């Protein structure tokens, strides 16, 4: 199927670098925004609040990348069948 995305790969990419899974899925702006937010969260660890938001955004990025890839694949499956 054309444009099929691996949901596992998208999740693993976001596991290592938040936002990279979204970029892999073709959601470039969303991926860049998540990368920027995580950069800001990294800076905010100096005043401790980053320790709260960094893992929250990290988990969101992983789950969102996985679900977005699944949604893209379902949409493509319906289109080509």
From TrEMBL:
<keyword id="KW-0812">Transmembrane</keyword>
<keyword id="KW-0472">Membrane</keyword>
<feature type="transmembrane region" description="Helical">
    <location>
        <begin position="31"/>
        <end position="61"/>
    </location>
</feature>
<protein>
    <recommendedName>
        <fullName>TM2 domain-containing protein</fullName>
    </recommendedName>
</protein>
<keyword id="KW-1133">Transmembrane helix</keyword>
């Amino acid at each position: 199927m054309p444009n099929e995305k691996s949901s596992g790969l998208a999740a693993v990419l976001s596991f290592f670098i938040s936002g990279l899974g979204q970029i892999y899925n073709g959601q470039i702006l969303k991926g860049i925004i998540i990368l920027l937010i995580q950069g800001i969260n990294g800076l905010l660890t100096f005043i401790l609040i980053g320790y709260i938001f960094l893992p929250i955004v990290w988990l969101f990025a992983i789950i969102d990348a996985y679900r977005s890839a699944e949604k893209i694949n379902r949409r493509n499956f319906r289109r080509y069948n």
